[in-house]
Structure formats: structure tokens, C-alpha cells
Design a protein that fits this description.
This protein is α/β, with parallel strands linked by helices. It has seven helices and seven strands; from the N terminus they run H-E-H-E-H-E-E-E-E-E-H-H-H-H. The protein has helices at 10-23, 33-39, 61-67, 120-134, 137-149, 154-163, 167-178, and strands spanning 28-31, 48-53, 71-73, 76-79, 82-88, 106-110, 113-117.
């Protein structure tokens, strides 16, 4: 799978890195802002890919990233040709959003290799979690942007907000979505 690293999108880099890692036996799930970039069809730009590892028992991650030209700098992996997007592996497993750790990611087939990404509904919840817990209003904007570009389960999002003790966040989200 060839990718022009100097001009690739978050989606192209996600597929390139995730497919390589999967073929090396490393299961990952794409989360965070890059998911927003993908689900907003490029209207939002993240600048990084955040992967949750599928297992805590991964021993060959750095070696596998080095094989495709990414070198570890602090907590990030950077590529000399890909100056606009870096990669990191924060936390996990388990994958969780707020108090919910029963997240089931979507699976995407890329040339016969199956890679994982948060679903649009769970990605909206992820952005709302940052809005709720860190008062990050830009994350509310990102949740709305995704919901306008993807099919999301509003009932599930409302239930999640209620379970987080933040029904007010769903009300704000819905108000912005209807604008």
C-alpha cells in the first residue's frame, strides 16, 4: 500500500500505519481528533493519529514503526517525510469513553486487512467527554461536525451523557446540531 507521506491525509496515514501494524500482529484502534478529521471528510484537521493498542503485551511496537520510517521522539512517532501528522499511542487498553469501557470499534477492510476505528457515535461521545470533563468547547464543535456528516445514534449519545451525569451536554449538542 503506497502512501505519499509528505501530503497524506489523516485517513491515508491511518490506513498505512494501521495496516502495517496489523500485519505485524499489532492490533490498534484509531481514536481522538484524527477520527474527527476522517468522519468530517477533512473539514477538521487533527495533526496527529492517536492509537489505542489492542493489548498491553505488545513488545515490537517501536521496531514495527521504525520499519516504516517512524522514529520515537518522546511520546510521539515522527516520520521525516510526514511533517504535518505524527503518531502516538496514549493509554489503553481497555478502550473507554468516560465511564463506559464497553466500546466496540468499527472494523474497516483495507485491501484484505481489517483495522479498527471508533464508530461515529462513539467518536461523538469521545468529543463530548472532553467537552464535559475539560470544558473544551472546540470538542463540542467537533462532535457537531461529525454528527452533521455521519449517521449517529442520538439515543445512545443521550443515554451516555445521562450516565456521565451531563444531560446538559447532550442538550447543548442537540441545540448546535439543529442550527
Amino acid at each position: 500500500m503506497a502512501t505519499n507521506l509528505s501530503s497524506c491525509s489523516e485517513n491515508e496515514l491511518w490506513e498505512y500505519v494501521a495496516v502495517h501494524l496489523k500485519r505485524k500482529g499489532i492490533d490498534t484502534i484509531l481514536v481522538g481528533g484524527a477520527v474527527v478529521a476522517i468522519y468530517s471528510k477533512g473539514a477538521y484537521q487533527s495533526g496527529d493519529l492517536d492509537f489505542v493498542k489492542g493489548s498491553i503485551f505488545i513488545t515490537n511496537l517501536e521496531k514495527s514503526m521504525n520499519e516504516i520510517g517512524f522514529k520515537k521522539h518522546g511520546r510521539h512517532f515522527v516520520h521525516p517525510k510526514c511533517k504535518h501528522i505524527f503518531v502516538e499511542f496514549p493509554g489503553g487498553p481497555p478502550l473507554g469513553i468516560g465511564e463506559d469501557n464497553t466500546i466496540v470499534p468499527d472494523v474497516v477492510d483495507v485491501e484484505g486487512t481489517f483495522i479498527k476505528i471508533l464508530s461515529p457515535t462513539d467518536s461523538v461521545k469521545d468529543r463530548l467527554a472532553s467537552f464535559i470533563h475539560f470544558k473544551a468547547s472546540e470538542c463540542l464543535d467537533q462532535a457537531v461536525l461529525m454528527a452533521k456528516n455521519q449517521d449517529v445514534n442520538l439515543t445512545s449519545i443521550k443515554r451516555w451523557c445521562k450516565n456521565e451525569g451531563a444531560e446538559w451536554a447532550f442538550d447543548e449538542f442537540l441545540k448546535m446540531l439543529k442550527k
